[in-house]
Amino acid sequence: MTEPTIHVPEGYRTTHLRGLWALAGCLVCGGNGEYLVSDRDDTDSTWDCDEPEPWYPQPCDCPWSPPPEVLRALDAADARLRRHRERMREVFDAIGPRQVGGTYWCGYWHRWYLVESIEIRFRDGDLTSPTWSITARWASGDRGTHHTPWNPRCDSTSFPARWPGRAPAPPELRYPTTVSCRWCRSQSAFVRSVHRAFCAR
Fold first, then answer.
1. 117: three-class secondary structure by DSSP
2. Which of 12, 28, 103, 148 is buried most deeply by CB count within 10 Å?
3. What are the pLDDT digits (tens) for 24-39?
């Protein structure tokens, strides 16, 4: 991602106009590359309006610009730089708060792991195509390398405060004899009568 070299003539300085350098000692623009003009026909008359007199920027004749092919190369380099920053931001978002030597809780596997290394590479040296991976040592002692993005909804930097237990059984399973349906009560009474008759033998 090497930007093209531009050899600016001596006595010129950069301006806010992209790809233009202005003469530092220009008496018209003062080295800014543009100067202000009024749209009035008679500039000698006094402005009698309540609002400020309108002035508009006009490009000066002193700015210097490199050849078009150099400007195109400069634009391409800027585009690659923006793409590199976007992709690196995505990589850092995927890594999240994880750092080498830190211990983290995996909400998917429900166990903690220690980050031993974080590696960021670029495919074929292209800075716009970064890849990343994390080498972790799990609580069981196993090691593995992965590139699973950080999920703030289930991953954590600390052990969860409370382990979710088993859901309680519904009342109809805990108290099978407590039924409100007339048909169910009759069936339950029939089962109990059969059971008593069988046990009485």
1. strand
2. 12
3. 999 998 888 888 887 6
